Request: fold
Amino acid sequence: MKRSLPLAIVFIGGVVYFLAYFTPHYFSEYILQQKILVDWLKILGLFAFVIGLYSLIHLHVTKIKRRVENWQYSIMTLTGLTVMFIFGILVPEKYLGGIQQGTVYDWIFMNVQVPLQSTMFSLLAFYITSAAFRAFKARSVEATCLLIAATIVMLGRVPLGESIREGTRGLLDFPKWTQWILDVPNMATKRAITFGVALGMIATSLKIMFGIERSWLGGSE
Amino acid sequence: MELDRRWIFLLVAVMVAVPLFIPSNPPIIPDRPVQELYNFIDELPEGTPIMICFDYSPDSLAELNPMGRALVRHAFSKNLRVIGLALAWPAASGLGLEIINTTAEEYGKVEGIDWAYFGYKIGYSQIVIGMGKNIIQTVQEDYKGVSLSNMEMFKDIKNYDDIGIVIDLAAGGSLGLFVTYVNTMYNRPVSTGVTAVMAADYYPYLQSGQIIGMLNGLKGAADYEKLINKKDLATKGMASQNWAHIMIIILIILGNISYLLTKKQGK
Reply:
């Protein structure tokens, strides 16, 4: 029952949704557009949130107790979580509590989390540039084609490409070549990849629906 | 040729940061996909609502925030109504609200009449499907908890049929959801603004007409700012992007020269 019930729910739900999407009958719309499905998803989401929160706290408390490597970062994590919880939920609105604009929660989000998260992602620029020097070598015909295409696109997507076009009176039209690369070979290749991915997703979904793929159930077989 | 990568990191930092402080007017010619989206929104009748879904986290803020701001500015300058929401990333809720709120103040637009913001809504695909039937029933409240049925803006908005276009500003794969349901199932116009690394993936949708135009990375945002005649962060950022790309190309050339010389010496 512990495994049969979830498998049955997945099978029935999957088949119903599959048929409803492809069946042009008002009853299909009736099934897909039910407000109760939105409410169920909200409830499931909240349960998932509670589990996720417990898991996060448990993980970091354990790291602090055992003094594992970098356990100090776990204190930072729990401190951030506690501070946001206090100001977002517990502190009354008249004391700048809540999650609206102008509250302490919003200030911390916009002035701490947003810059930190953006900065982490911007590190990619440094690593890509370093990789460009070390690894982007024309070792083969394919690598050379890749390098040429990459150079054209890099020039075509910045004002320098426009300036070169104007300076050479359209002879070296990097923006136009870039658009052609994106519109023709890239588009064709991406479409083929999308088809392949879609076929893979269909196969995996069918395996999950029919209970052949059961790794999502967790636990031992 | 060995070069300590810390020198490269320093060069990147200088090439990206310095142009931000030097006033410049880089030549920007809008791409065709950006022009398509601009033309579509520009031709919408006054008062038409447009829906913008903010589906990104602060990681992608540098590229997508300017897009969102330019789109909202364009909408408000044409007296279109704006509906904002976040479906994929809870963190986008604050980002989208900041964009719409500050831009609304710029244009003197009133919340509840000219714009509404739903905030982050749990339910993802079910929300997208449900809004095709009835937005008020599916979403119910805005980010403050105010009922949509009490808002003047929603007196004549029932579902996607009343929305001019749905635009997904995406840093993940959320566009597929809008193409599948909003465009294919409900037959409504969809467009998108995505990060530059993702843009190449969506050209098939552009070619087939499933999306109307596309904003591609920081360049796309800068193109849109040019079209609405309101230069802002994206245009400023293009100077940095310009020099960063030049530096990458120079480093690639140097790396390849070094490789070829090494290969020749080896022979």
